[in-house]
Specification:
Helix 19 (about 480-505) runs antiparallel to helix 20 (about 515-540). This protein is α/β, with parallel strands linked by helices. It starts with a helix and ends with a helix. It is flat and about 75 Å long. About 40% of the residues are buried. The longest helix is centred in the C-terminal third of the chain and has 36 residues, at about 565-600. It has three domains: about 1-180, 3-Layer(aba) Sandwich (Rossmann fold); about 190-470, no CATH class; about 480-600. Strands 13-12-11-10-9-16-19-20 form an eight-stranded parallel β-sheet, covered by helices on one side. Strands 1-7-6-5-8 form a five-stranded parallel β-sheet. The protein has a three-stranded antiparallel β-sheet with strand order 2-3-4. About 45% of the residues lie in helices and about 15% in strands. It has 22 helices and 20 strands.
């Protein structure tokens, strides 16, 4: 049975299975009464009776596509019954955090149910569940079902593991929410970013080629200095690391460091809001030896007025930057992981440099001990805390702290924390959290900054400024870029016309309760032409970035309709398609306007 089950599981790359060792075995099989009733004993001698019986109270709609997270693998008959009751296009994700049960079924039970490609297994420590869930939904293009999530508990977890079940559901819901959040902002926000990116073409041309920094500081220490309130207690330690570690500062803290006599090698920004320029760059005396790193979406005034070198990498994993990368003709190594915060940019830069260990300082991701304090002293936030309370941030979101206490955080900070944890695990990074406070960041080693510097920052490293000065700018052919933008305009005009025609066709559809079945089928075929347009949008990086939220909203709404051919469902579907196509046409027109403005201003001379 073991070899057969291994062969079945190996055929689906979507499974996530951790290693089994003696410490994983917490429950031992004792005996069984029949094929459905078994007894297990845990390491404390407690006996558990399990019954492989389907929970008839479970509610699902077999007509709707869902992702059903089923907790527990030991009840194989239950899982088979569950599978028979779901929509054929749904997914069942079996979550088994207890490797004892996975080991048992692997040797004793027939796992033929996993021959179905839409049944996926996760069996590993719960610390890995976030990474699995994020990858499962994002990598396998299942975000269209992210709002159709359901949970089922098999017998053992229904009876004995309420807290484990509660934690699993919480982890999955948070990750799904984060994935939905990462889909993108409004069309207006996306177009604002595109305008900035195109306006900064001249600064991309003047940017140092970041690909030439790839792994230049392999296995050299890098310290990422963020602005959390814990930085107050150990900022003086940073004065000891000049020329012995790469210092990467977030924009919030750079001026505070300079006042303390600490000159970072890099300052990182990510947001395009005018306040970033006004708070952290306007009229500030940042010395020339500091290099600015940030995506080309930043306020152009930042690049225009910055004294030192600038470096504009593309944001790894972001569709719009894949498009920019292509039209600019950039080579490999120009993408950097940036996440959603300036600290993420700094972390991605350290990864790009090949730095190890990566040392986090001031990365609290939680409130300080004083009510409402979110940042270290000596920043713009001193005044902001006095002037205004931020009720949207001050909330009772409690998480495990650096010192294993409980600290108060916010949803967005936890989102930032999970990004760090995901990258550390994804790239197997050596990261030391020397924040000495705030929220605990899993998969890091916790040491004081003093001890970390004593151990890992004892040798001189090559001057960052010397290396930066030796690097050439991006090699971009302006004529090729102009031709690429012209080609994009031609394609957008073609697609917009297709959308206009489809919208007219959809609006002209006459759906009445007297319509024949044959006519209803033809209406379905016409509606399916919109699905092809959705696919075309998702296959184009720039359009996907700006319209992904609109496409997914249409998918979520469509997936909420039972796949039954009747007039009521078709009327709802027709309305969804109209709501989808109308903003698509407007957005494409605005993208065309942005590209035309860029061509006119950038290539006029």
């Amino acid at each position: 049975m073991f070899d057969k089950n291994i062969n079945i599981l190996q055929k689906n790359e979507m499974h996530w299975i951790g290693g089994i060792d003696s410490s994983s075995i917490t429950h031992t099989f004792i005996t069984s009464e029949n094929s459905r009733i078994e007894y297990f004993e845990d390491i404390n001698g407690k006996i558990f009776k399990t019954e492989d019986t389907y929970d008839k109270s479970f509610q699902n709609n077999p007509l709707k596509k869902e992702i059903i997270f089923s907790i527990g693998i030991n009840s194989v008959i239950e899982l088979e019954k569950l599978y028979k009751n779901i929509n054929k296009d749904s997914y069942i994700v079996v979550i088994e955090p207890n490797l004892s049960f996975f080991n048992h079924v692997l040797h004793k039970k027939d796992l033929k149910i996993f021959q179905n490609k839409n049944i996926v297994l996760f069996s590993d420590k719960l610390e890995q569940l976030s990474n699995f869930t994020r990858e499962f939904i994002s990598k396998h293009s299942l975000i269209g079902l992210a709002k159709n999530i359901n949970f089922y508990q098999t017998d053992y977890y229904r009876k004995y593991e309420y807290e484990t079940t509660k934690r699993i559901i919480q982890i999955i819901r948070e990750i799904v929410r984060n994935v939905i959040l990462s889909v993108g902002n409004s069309i207006e926000d996306g177009l604002g970013g595109l305008k900035n990116n195109l306006e900064n073409l001249e600064w991309i041309l003047k940017s140092k080629d970041i690909s030439r920094l790839k792994n230049v500081y392999k296995d050299k220490p890098a310290i990422i200095v963020s602005a959390g309130p814990s930085l107050n207690k150990n900022i003086n330690e940073l004065k000891r690391v000049k020329n012995r570690a790469i210092i990467i500062a977030v924009d919030t803290i750079v001026n505070k460091l300079l006042l303390e006599g600490i000159v970072p090698d890099f300052v990182c920004s990510i947001e395009r809001e005018k306040e970033i320029y006004e708070y952290f760059y306007k009229d500030k005396s940042i010395p020339k030896e500091v290099t600015l790193v940030g995506p080309p979406v930043l306020d152009p005034r930042i690049f225009r007025e910055f004294n030192g070198e600038i470096m504009l990498p593309m944001r790894a994993g972001v569709a719009e930057y894949k498009w920019i990368h292509r039209v600019l003709g950039l080579g490999e190594g120009t993408n950097v992981e940036m996440g959603a915060s300036c600290a993420h940019v700094a972390f991605g830069l350290a990864m790009h440099l090949g730095a190890s260990p990566i040392i986090l300082v001031g990365q609290d991701l939680a409130y300080g001990s004083t009510e409402g304090v979110t940042h270290a002293s000596g920043t713009i936030y001193d005044k902001k805390v006095k002037d205004e309370k931020e009720p949207s941030l001050i909330q009772d979101y409690k998480v495990q702290g650096y010192n294993d206490d409980e600290v108060r955080s916010t949803y967005i900070w936890i989102y930032f924390k999970e990004w760090f944890e995901a990258k550390i695990n994804q790239y197997d990074l050596f990261v030391i959290n020397a924040t000495e406070g705030g929220a605990k960041i899993n998969s890091t080693i916790q040491k004081s900054l003093k001890e970390t510097i004593d151990v890992y920052c004892s040798q001189n490293i090559e001057s960052v400024q010397v290396i930066i000065n030796s690097i050439k700018n991006y090699d971009i052919n302006k004529q090729d870029l102009r031709n690429e933008l012209k080609n994009e305009l031609s394609y957008l005009a073609f697609l917009k016309e297709k959308c206009i025609n489809q919208l007219e066709n959809i609006k002209s559809l006459k759906i009445t309760y007297s319509s024949s079945n044959k006519k209803l089928i033809k209406i379905v075929e016409e509606l399916q032409r919109t699905d092809l347009i959705m696919t075309e949008i998702l296959n184009h990086d720039l359009l996907r970035h700006n319209l992904q939220s609109i496409v997914l909203k249409a998918m979520w709404d469509t997936n909420n309709i039972e796949p039954v051919l009747n007039v009521k469902n078709l009327l709802v579907n027709k309305e969804i398609h109209e709501r989808f196509l109308t903003p698509v046409i407007v957005c494409i027109s605005q993208i065309e306007e942005c590209l035309n403005e860029a061509i006119e201003s950038y290539f006029s001379s």
